[in-house]
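Reviewers asked in the last cycle whether our approach scales beyond single polypeptides. To address this, we selected a multi-component target totalling 549 residues and predicted its structure end to end. The input consisted of the following lines:
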Amino acid sequence: MNQTPYDRVKLARDSQRPTGMDYIRRIFHGFLEFHGDRRYADDPAIVGGIAWLGNTPVTVIAIEKGHTPKERVERNFGAPNPEGYRKALRLMKQAEKFGRPVICFADTSGAYCGIGAEERGQGQAIAENLTEMSTLCVPIVSILIGEGGSGGALALAVADRVWMPENAVYSVISPEGCASILWKDAAKADLAAASLKLTAEDAKRLGVIEKILPEEDLGEPSYYERIRALLSEEIVRLTHDPDLLQKRYDRFRRIGRIASDRVV
Amino acid sequence: MPLLNFLQPKNDLEEGGRISAPVLSDAGEPEQNCPNCHKDIPISRLRENLLVCSCGYHFRLHARQRITMIADESSFCELFSEIHSCNPLDFPGYREKLDAAAEASRENEAVICGTATVGGQRCCVFAMESAFMMGSMGSAVGEKITSLFEYAVKQRLPVIGFTVSGGARMQEGLLSLMQMAKTSAAVKRHSDVGLLYIAVLTDPTTGGVTASFAMEADIILAEPGATVGFAGKRVIEQTTKQTLPKEFQSAEFVLEHGFLDAISPRKDQKKLLAEILKLHNGGLQ
Ligand SMILES: [Zn+2]
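The resulting structure, written as structure tokens, was:
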């Protein structure tokens, strides 16, 4: 582990890193993609549908960045618009109706900062996912596979379990953005990355995630097999938990709880 | 309240801030220049008018001024005032920022919570404080808001909240981000038992607060001209390489796009909030 936090940020952004669609194709079978938010449009930055996890039908939702420059443009570099979050919520509500567990893969530098995104209520779309996911009556497991960019990633990660591969990052702001706001110098991004505590180890220590996925075989068949096995096991456990929603509430409730003069 | 209490140093996160230093006119009375009509207005007149210029421009108010403005006299009872930020990640310079914010705002955190009566109807109230690190949400803000909604569920009370925020507080990293989920879950529980939540968005309400409890109310109001949005204007201009129109992300723009129930000038807010509470049986089941 001699990589600095900022090295991790660069690894997390690498275009050769597996994307959401890679995970979907390799972990599940029979994936059927379903499009659109039924309100405005279909957002290519978020992919969703139904698939088989072993013998269990599950709803799968992933932010897709694409690998090649052409794919990246088509996927808006994995920066979702409000209709992407609304599509995700529509599919989650459908999963709830039919009793399917939900598995999300988040990988974004952040929700898209665009004119149309603001006009169509980017903040409201994210907020609605946060409230609705907090009481969705089926298990939710989210894996932050690359960049966990702030609210744009959290909108797919109000889950019972959140996991990260060891070189993924999860942060309230990009290190460059943080450095330019605080120190008026984007070049201090490495200091910001270290200060923000955005690595998988940090997230685990802060109680924000449950599991770190080793990456030594990243992208190999064994990597996906291991995740498939972990997911299958976890989904069974969560499906049989009678206190699922209380535990999901408590999972977030305890983060940043303040007793007297101290954050615990 | 001291005469110049609302004239605070600008926070360094604040862009194009609404308040500048007072200037002395010939008559010797402190005046405030209105950034909208560019006239110098005597502070005494501004104060009589709830810090609203005759042109309609709304200057920023402090959290306690907002509560005083809507709560029935002596009805406010503060809750959770002992909860305040520390520096959980040992973020460089954060301790000093907190101390400076406490001095500038004379508050220990960026939100004030409590109970009050509004038009004789009991409710929970929160008001965010722009002079405390631009109302940014860290663990303490998240904890206080969450605790207030949980208290409101227990006491079966409606919640009225005034938001002003630059977003999540980056010096607490992921802990700040998680407060968006934590507060949202508490708002949902309050909503699911049939209780009323009214949010009044004031200038500016942005980032992680817009993307959580500001946009989750049953009834969402905003002050005229308030900036309401998710991403900062400068970031959007950099991302899209487009110049944004002046009205972009104004309350009027957000209303037109369907994300606000109404715009309410400051002088009407108490009456409107009392009437909405009354229409909901005081918000009680
Ligand atoms: Zn004016």
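Chain A is about 45% helix and 20% strand. We regard this as preliminary and will revisit it once experimental data from Aim 1 are available.
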